[in-house]
Amino acid sequence: MSGETVEADGQEARLKTGGHEGKYLTFVLGGEEYGLEILKVREIIGLMEITAVPQTPIFVKGVINLRGKVIPVIDLRLKFGMEEAEPTEETCIIVVDIGGSLIGIFVDTVSEVLDVTADQIEPAPSFGSSIETSFILGMGKIKGKVKILLDIDRALSAEELTGASGLGG
After folding, report:
1. Residue 148: which of 139, 157, 156, 158 has the closest Cα?
2. How many Cα atoms are found within 13 Å in the side-chain-facing hemisphere of 114?
3. What percent of the chain stands above pLDDT 90?
4. Strand, helix or coil at 125?
5. Distances (CA, A) of 112 to 4, 20, 23, 35
6. pTM for this one?
């Protein structure tokens, strides 16, 4: 069973087999560093005009036209319950592929691409049953800092976005 995932406790089973090691794109939100699997990233673009869409959740900034394709844009700060921030020159949109749908993620700034090994990843701490942490792959201990490694598919499920907002991808 080397390298296979046993879905008993999902997170820990994958972590013990090193299932999350690899390259991560790191970015900053509200002073904290996060990482997402580089294989999910399609491109990083600067800020562009975002068209607001009525009756969408507060975290849905709207949609952009990226080379003829309409893509929903999510403000990850708002999705995670943080305060909204004014865009700066470093604010950008990371376009990710979630279940075949392209979604833009509005972030404060992109940091770097890191190689993360299995021994640098610890399971997400338990905060009790009332706090949802299933969208966290693990905590990366890199260069003396802790980076929150996201399961972007769980953090932004395409069903949640299309169902809640009527936006398709």
Report:
1. 139
2. 25
3. 62
4. coil
5. 29, 18, 10, 9
6. 0.80
